[in-house]
Amino acid sequence: xxxxxxxxxxxxxxxxxxxxxxxxxxxxxxxxxxxxxxxxxxxxxxxxxxxxxxxxxxxxxxxxxxxxxxxxxxxxxxxxxxxxxxxxxxxxxxxxxxxxxxxxxxxxxxxxxxxxxxxxxxxxxxxxxxxxxxxxxxxxxxxxxxxxxxxxxxxxxxxxxxxxxxxxxxxxxxxxxxxxxx
Length: 182
Prior knowledge:
Layout (H helix, E strand, L loop, with lengths): L9 E6 L5 H10 L5 E5 L8 H14 L3 E5 L4 H8 L5 E4 L1 H10 L4 H14 L4 E6 L10 H20 L2 E6 L2 E6 L6
Helix pairs in contact: 3-5, 4-6, 5-6
């Protein structure tokens, strides 16, 4: 087993829908000690049976090795409350951003606070996010605004993390660190 000291402190795993990013992140989070904390950002809104089914699928797949912590908007608080114990997996930043936007919160300030909080963390933390900017330009203003906010959020978090991985068809491709300076 790896110790916390042997695991990278902060990791961002991004990819498209159903790219395998959550499974990759789960394996990585459990690697040090066989247990981890799952910080869930998803909200189940009324009559959203499809989202409820997705959450149930994730929980069933994870099993008893995980302690769940629900943080739809207060991600910094959840990181502070769980730091110093087990590795944490935040799944996912895209849903967290959606929750902030729906609550009309200052998402830019929240992202900046998250970047600062990542630097203070002692226990490993893995963030999962969706890569939403690889498709066509959305046709409406709201969708374009969300795509842009997600892109900016991913860039800020990626910059603050020690490693960045891209999930492609269930396989992780290392993005950061690299040997290229731009």
